[in-house]
Design a protein that fits this description.
Length: about 180
C-alpha cells in the first residue's frame, strides 16, 4: 500500500519530461470585434526587419531582451476620402484627383527572442512583453518613413489608376490632391 502511494505521488510530483511524457495544450477563441467595408488601394508593400533591445532596471536589477521583428508595411490610398473624378466624354478624358497615400497597415509577421535575461528581483512580465510589442510597432512605423514608402505608394497608385482606366481611347490624368 505504501509502495502504491509512493508511486502515485512520484508520478504527480516528478515532471513528465523525466518520465518520457510531455503534454501541451493549446486553446483559442476568436472574437470578431468589427467588420466594416473599406476602399483602400494598397499600392506599395515593404517587408522589413528590425532589432529591438529592451532593458529595464529596478533597484539595480536589470532585465534585458534582444528581439528581431519581421514586419510588413502596406501603404496606399484610402478611396473613401472622396477622390475628385470628372469624365469628359466629348474629349475622351478622365481626370482624377486622389488623396495622398498613407501607411495603411503594419503587420508584425514574426518576433524572435534571441536573448532574454531577467533580473534577480525584476523578472519578465506580461507588461514587459506588451511594451516590446508596442515598441516593435512604433519602430516599424518609423522605418516606413525612412524607406520613402509613401512616395513610392503615391507614384504606384497614380500609375495603377492610369493603367486601369485608360480603355476605349480615353486619356487619364491622375494627380494627388494637395500636390
Amino acid at each position: 500500500m505504501i509502495l502504491i502511494g509512493f508511486a502515485y505521488c512520484a508520478t504527480r510530483l516528478v515532471p513528465g519530461a523525466l518520465l518520457g511524457r510531455t503534454s501541451t495544450s493549446i486553446t483559442h477563441d476568436v472574437v470578431v470585434q468589427q467588420v466594416k467595408a473599406v476602399a483602400k488601394l494598397v499600392s506599395s508593400e515593404a517587408t522589413v526587419r528590425d532589432v529591438i533591445v529592451y532593458e529595464n532596471t529596478w533597484y539595480g536589477s536589470t532585465k534585458r531582451s534582444l528581439v528581431v521583428v519581421t514586419g510588413r508595411l502596406l501603404a496606399g490610398v484610402d478611396l473613401r476620402d472622396n477622390p475628385d473624378v470628372s469624365i469628359d466624354h466629348a474629349r475622351r478624358r478622365i481626370t482624377i484627383r486622389i488623396p495622398p497615400a498613407k501607411l495603411i497597415a503594419i503587420e508584425i509577421r514574426d518576433m524572435r527572442t534571441y536573448d532574454e535575461s531577467g533580473g534577480l528581483w525584476n523578472p519578465f512580465t506580461r507588461e514587459d512583453r506588451d511594451a516590446i510589442q508596442r515598441q516593435a510597432r512604433a519602430q516599424l512605423t518609423a522605418v516606413g518613413g525612412q524607406l520613402e514608402l509613401i512616395r513610392h505608394a503615391n507614384e504606384s497608385a497614380v500609375e495603377l489608376l492610369r493603367m486601369l482606366l485608360a480603355r476605349d481611347g480615353y486619356t487619364v490624368d491622375v494627380a494627388l490632391r494637395g500636390a
